[in-house]
Structures are given as C-alpha cells and as structure tokens.
Specification:
Elements (H helix, E strand, L loop, with lengths): L4 H18 L7 H28 L24 H17 L5 H27 L1 H9 L5
Length: 145
C-alpha cells in the first residue's frame, strides 16, 4: 500500500489526539477553540476547492498520477500547493484546539514529509509535463504562501 498525504494527515492527527489524551495539557479556552476551528475550516476549504478544480479539469488528483491540465486558477493563484497548505492548516487548527505544545512536532513532521516526499518530486513532474508554462507559473506563484 502506498501512503499519500491524506494518510500522513490522518496518522499525525491521531498522534496529536493520543498526545493530548495521555499528555499534560492545560484547559482549552473558547477563543483558541474558535481560532482552531477557523484554521480547520480554512484547511477543508483549500483542500476540497482544489480537488474540485482537478476533477472539473479531468486531471489527476493523486500525487504522481498523470497531469493533463495545469491548474492556475482559484487558490492556485496564491500558492502552488493549496491542498497541502489546507492539510497543514487543518493540523494547525487541531493543534490549537488540543492546546498541547508537543503537537507542534507533528505539524512540522507533516510539513517536511509532504515537502520532501511529494512537493519537490511533483514539481519535477510538472516541469517535465508542462515545460515553460509551468516555469512561468512557478516564477509568479510561491510554493506555499
């Protein structure tokens, strides 16, 4: 079985919950919960809006699948990786809600796993597939934010 970013997101979310459940965390407060829920909502918005764009364009959503269309609209105007930014936003929100400082490590782990195992390799694939169009897009739009 291959592991993709949503698998890592699930595993690291569960790690956060386990750390919170068995760890020493201070009581949550409403403002932090609301901010966390905002980040989680933003994460879902970024990820699902981006997935919908891929589906409408009939291009591969799964990492390293065949890309037939270079998506540059929607959130792709601001970041080359809105799905991954959304997943990071979800974990940040969960970390704030759970209010356990140890969970920052799971957020950092997710960021580097996605960056090193997916983003850097996907960029090479995009350059090979779309050539100058992708290079022009890459010069205009940041990788993250």
């Amino acid at each position: 079985m291959k592991f993709y970013p949503p698998h890592y997101l699930l595993i690291l979310s569960l790690c956060m919950l386990v750390t919170w459940y068995f760890g020493e965390s201070s009581p949550q407060n409403l403002p932090l919960i609301l901010i966390g829920l905002g980040f989680i909502g933003l994460g879902f918005l970024l990820a699902f809006n981006s997935i919908a764009r891929f589906v409408r364009a009939k291009t591969g959503v799964v990492p390293f699948s065949e890309s037939t269309t270079l998506i540059t609209e929607g959130f792709y105007k601001y970041t080359r990786n809105p799905m991954y930014v959304g997943m990071n936003s979800f974990l940040l929100g969960l970390m704030l809600i759970l209010k356990n400082p140890l969970n920052i490590f799971f957020l950092i782990i997710f960021f580097f796993v996605v960056r090193n195992m997916f983003v850097l390799k996907e960029e090479v694939q995009m350059e090979e597939t779309f050539g100058e169009d992708y290079l022009t897009y890459k010069r205009k739009v940041r990788r993250w934010l």
